[in-house]
Structure formats: C-alpha cells, structure tokens
Amino acid sequence: MRCSDRPTRLTPIPRAIWNGTVIAESDRCERVEGNGYFPPDGVQRACLKPSDSHALCPWKGTASYYHVEVNGQQNTDAARYCARPKPAAANIRGYIAFWRGVRIEA
C-alpha cells in the first residue's frame, strides 16, 4: 500500500463523551450558537432515553430532550433536538446536541 492510498483526515471527528463512553461521533455535525449538533446516525441511540421535557426557542422552535444513560448512570435531559424546527434552523432538523457535562471533543 502506498501512502497516498490511505485516506487522510486533516481535522479530528467531533465526539460527544459522557461517563467514559463515546455517545456520538460524526464528521457531519452542524454548529449553532456554539453548540455541536450531531446527525441522528452518528448517535448511539441505546444511550438515549425519552424525556417529557420541552423548551421553546424563539428562532429554532420547540426542543425536546433525552436523558443520557451510560453504565447505569443517568444524565437528565442532557441531549436535545428539534424534530420540527423553524425555517431558520432547518439544518438541525432531527440533529442532537448535548450539554450538562457531556464533553464534546474535536
């Protein structure tokens, strides 16, 4: 194999980590207001549990939440998403952002 045969990544792939586990990873994240939003197929769905919490953002729309569960521990409402965002935030439809101690590395 020649060196040029290998794919080269110039920037690291963003990852979301909580409780020592990578819960999301993708090179197709969207950045909104300083937060990284991961595409649904880049998230470990087994780590997300439904939440009844919702919040309204004036320009993004209604956000819904998931609890993050890893190794028997729960981080309440630590993941959020907009299933039907307003037009200004259409690029994050269904994408998932993390907070409340979830570390984002890039």
Explain briefly what this protein structure is.
The chain has strands at residues 15-18, 21-25, 30-32, 35-38, 48-57, 61-70, 73-81, 96-98, 103-105.
Description:
- The protein has 106 residues and is mainly beta.
- It is built from no helices and nine strands.
- A six-stranded antiparallel sheet has the order 3-4-8-7-6-5, with no helix packed on it. Strands 2-1-9 form a three-stranded antiparallel sheet, with no helix packed on it.
- β6 (61-70) and β7 form a beta hairpin.
Distance between the termini: 28 Å
Mean pLDDT: 90
- State the secondary-structure class: mainly beta
The number of helical runs is: 0
* Main sheet characteristics: 6 strands, antiparallel
In the CATH hierarchy, what is the architecture of the domain at 48-106 at level 2? Beta Complex
CATH topology name of the domain at 48-106: Metal Binding Protein, Guanine Nucleotide Exchange Factor, Chain A
Low-pLDDT stretches are: 1-9
Query: Looking across the biggest beta sheet, what order are the strands in?
Result: 3-4-8-7-6-5
Helix proportion:
under 10%
Write the H/E string, N to C.
Answer: EEEEEEEEE
Radius of gyration: 15 Å
CATH domain class of the domain at 48-106:
Mainly Beta
